[in-house]
Amino acid sequence: EAIIEFSGVEVKYGEVEALRGIDLKIPGEKVTVIIGPSGCGKSTMIRTVNRMVEPTRGTVRYQGQDVKTFDKIELRRQMGYAIQNVGLIPHLTVEENILLVPRLLGWPEDRKKKRAKELLDLIGLDAGKYANKYPSELSGGEAQRVGVARALGADPPVLLFDEPFGAVDPLKREELQDEFIRIQRRLRKTVLFITHDLSEAIRLADYMVIMKDGVVVQADAPERLLKEP
Ligand code: ADP
Ligand code: ADP
């Protein structure tokens, strides 16, 4: 039931060894949280999954197949991606931003309209009020929600979340975590979620991966990891 598998994955950026041999199985339909200090290779690791980064050595498999055998548009359909600084496109409206992947996939107009409304409902933003706003008119928390909605755009089975709530203040962050938990209960995605916040990791993780200096130090259910002396 591993849906994503890393085998001997190494990544070098010139002289920098960002990943030094990752062997890891990611369970399907669960939230796997990757935690570790800044610079330990977390972002690099999840970016090898959707081929934003190509391994220098080793293989990443998705559903048993080397991700290299998928084209990049197919990977975008399969894997939503959200990052800390949201990266909404400033000259596109909220609706246009969340429909980027459906547009890329050539969905017809009526299906896109319907999907935009569903996504805004899901993240708790009123479609009438928000669909035509521009990113600059959103609060930080609203923008993060829209970033999550964009990742969910074409209903991908996998979500790659790189500290999606990292830039939000602590109270708002808990609200977003609650909402994420609520959404995940409904949608049952395979989620790879990066954080460097231990309390966030404990709240969200079904499975927890601890990284340091480009390797996985430990990987287990959080209750088992935290029980150890
Ligand atoms: P984390 O997400 O844990 O902060 P990263 O995967 O972003 O770690 O980075 C791992 C290491 O690789 C760091 O030393 C970082 O400086 C380096 N690195 C990341 N991206 C690049 C890049 N595009 N070019 C060169 N070095 C990079
Ligand atoms: P850094 O964190 O190293 O500063 P970013 O995470 O901001 O860099 O980089 C964003 C990158 O992600 C850009 O190259 C952008 O084209 C790409 N990107 C944005 N959304 C997606 C997506 N859904 N799938 C794949 N790549 C994406």
TrEMBL record:
**Is the keyword Transport in the record?**
yes
Q: What GO MF terms are annotated?
A: ATP binding; ATP hydrolysis activity
Q: Give the GO biological process terms.
A: quaternary ammonium group transport
Q: Where is the signal peptide?
A: none
Q: Which domain of life is it from?
A: Bacteria
Q: Where is the ABC transporter domain?
A: 4-229
- Keyword set includes Nucleotide-binding: yes
Q: Which UniProt keywords apply?
A: ATP-binding, CBS domain, Nucleotide-binding, Transport
Family indicated by similarity: Belongs to the ABC transporter superfamily.
- Name of the protein: ABC transporter related protein
Give the species this sequence originates from. Thermovirga lienii (strain ATCC BAA-1197 / DSM 17291 / Cas60314)
What taxonomic ancestry is recorded?
Answer: Bacteria, Thermotogati, Synergistota, Synergistia, Synergistales
Task: Tell which residues of the whole protein are contained here.
Answer: 3 to 231 of 353
